[in-house]
């Protein structure tokens, strides 16, 4: 039994509008146990997408395993099939290394920040 503060969730995904772009923010550990959370948030996001621009803000990710990368590839694939431009922002640390090693830095469109992605879009 916990007394006092509850433990922080290991992974969260939330979305919000920035102009006409929908930004999905992922935070924490995107691993095999938490890909469902991102998948559910993306299901909601695809249903309310106001334009052909979706930004995945990954600046608050602390870890991403191959399951998480698979989920990001699914988002990209869905975007391609729907004509939606999918941009990753804030890719750093563990995720940056994994994407680089897998040769996926050329597959994803990436910007350092949401502001820079919005400016370029």
Automatic annotation (TrEMBL):
Regions crossing the membrane: none
SUPFAM superfamilies, sorted: SpoIIaa-like (SSF52091)
Gene3D superfamilies found in the cross-reference section: STAS domain
Domain STAS: residue ranges: 22-121
Pfam families in the cross-refs: STAS
Similarity section: Belongs to the anti-sigma-factor antagonist family.
Protein name: Anti-sigma factor antagonist
